[in-house]
Every structure is written in C-alpha cells, then in structure tokens.
Design brief:
alpha/beta
C-alpha cells in the first residue's frame, strides 16, 4: 500500500510543540503515523497475523498498528510508559471506533506502563511482540529497548516472533537530510538526541542484547508524503526527534530551519514527498 498525501492541518494560534503535548500527539496520529503503514502491513502479511494472533505492542503510541492488527482479527494489547497523550488517542481508536471484529474490540487492552503491567495469568501467552518505533535515527535511540524486550519475552511462548524496526541506509532515506537540521541546532546537547546514520546491524545488536535470536529481516518503502510544507513540519515535529533542538534554541528557529530544509522536497503542486526505506527484523524468544 502506498500512503496517500495527508490532508493539510493548519497551525492553531498559541500552539507550541514544546508545551502542547495533546496537540503534538494529535499531529502524530493525524499526520505522521500513517507514513509507517506499509511497514505494518508488510510485517503482518509475512507473519500471517489473523484471528489466531495475540499481539503485544511495545511503545504502541496512538495505536494505528494495533488497529490494523484488529482489522485482521487479532487480539491486541498495547503498552506505552511515557506518552499518555498518544495512549489516550489509541483508546479512542481501539475502544470506541475500531473497525475490527467485535471479539478483537472487546479483548483489546491498553496499558500505561511496561510489559510487566500487561501480564495476565488468566490469558494465553502472546504469540507476537512488536516494537515498531524505528531506531537508528538519533544517537542513543535504542537505549532501553533491549531491557524492554527482555521484560516482554517471558509473556510469550518459546520461539515467539519479536519484530523490531529501524531506519534504512541514509542514502535511501530522503528524510535524513531534514533530520540533520536537528543535529545542527542541538549541537550543545549533541550527546543525546542528535541525528546519526542508521547502521547495518543496529537491529541485530538490540536483539542479541535482549537474548533474542534473529530469524529474518526485510526492507519496506515508506515514503513521507504531505499536503504542504506546514503539514510536513508539524508531522516531523510530532516525532520528538527535534526536541533537543527546541531545547537548545527555540521553537521559532526550529520551525524556520525545518521549513527551509523541506523546500528541496516540495513538488510543483506544493506537496512534499520524501522517499524512505525502513528495515524490520524478526527475532525469536528463547
């Protein structure tokens, strides 16, 4: 599936990406999150996600990947320890407006916390674990992921697939040039949150540290398409990848330089288009 261009979303007066966390979560859910739909679809197709699947989504955010799994009949549980605003949107999607089967809707769970908070001795073990938040874009963005996967593994059976996601090579990700703006502006905080190119074995290293066994991988084209430059800026800011730059400078300067970096990707009709490739790894629990 190729993502269609998202609708234009105009900035509301007084909205700051640094202080209005609810607005930022809404930007993520309405503008940016859908760019990863081809990744979710490729993984679900390869692993034959369906009515037999009990899925645990780590860092589930606003829940689009979970919603897509329920549309296939899967029973899903999502956990997220640090983004309550996104989790609130996931509840709206899954518990009020989900389009999957009634069984999947009734059994869907969302937990503000970590994997241990999703443990339920009265339910069968999970047979798929996903960690779809892509790594390999900023320095240190994989820190803590191995521990999260280690904590989740005991909730699944032996040999259960665990899916990790990451950015592809920078030469195949047009958005990499835009992300470098964050590094330049955040130079005083370069030790954390700075852009860095994805490395070939990023996902495998995380899996090995978590005690998982790599068992296949794939690459998926995930172009970022936006109706205009303003929507593109709002979508990218919603990822949190520019937070260090905002702290080091101010939102106005970040907006200005981000907008300038997006102009080479602006097409004649005003839309913004950036081809990207993302990689996923399938690992197995011990």
């Amino acid at each position: 599936m190729t993502p269609t261009l998202v609708q234009s979303h105009h900035r509301h007066a007084g909205t700051s990406p640094r202080v209005d966390l609810c607005a930022r979560a809404r930007d993520w859910a309405e503008i940016q999150e859908r760019m990863l739909v081809p990744l979710y679809e490729a993984v679900y197709e390869r692993l034959e996600v369906g009515r037999h699947t009990r899925l645990l989504g780590l860092g589930c955010g606003s829940g689009l990947a979970l919603l897509m799994a329920t549309s296939r009949g899967a029973v899903v549980t999502g956990v997220d320890p640090s983004q309550p605003e996104r989790l609130a949107l996931a509840r709206e999607r899954l518990l009020s407006h989900a389009t999957g089967s009634s069984r999947a809707r009734g059994d869907a769970r969302l937990v503000e916390g970590g994997p241990a908070d999703a443990a339920d001795p009265d339910r069968p073990a999970y047979d798929l674990i996903t960690a779809f938040q892509p790594i390999g874009c900023t320095a240190g963005d994989s820190e803590g992921l191995s521990g999260l996967l280690e904590a989740a593994a005991p909730l699944a059976g032996r040999g259960t697939p665990v899916v990790l996601a990451g950015w592809g090579p920078p030469e195949r990700c047009a958005t990499s040039s835009v992300m470098r703006v964050a590094t330049k502006l955040a130079d005083p905080l370069r030790s954390a949150g700075s852009w860095r190119p994805a490395l070939r074995d990023d996902l495998e290293e995380v899996a090995h540290r978590a005690g998982l066994r790599p068992d296949g991988s794939g690459r998926v084209a995930c172009p970022f398409g936006y109706a205009d430059v303003e929507s593109a800026a709002r979508g990218l800011l919603s990822t949190g990848l520019f937070d260090a730059a905002v702290r080091a400078t101010d939102p106005v300067q970040v907006d200005k330089e981000l907008t300038e970096a997006l102009h080479p990707h602006r097409r004649r009709d005003g839309t913004v288009w950036m081809p990207n490739v993302f990689r996923y790894l399938i690992a197995r629990t011990p």
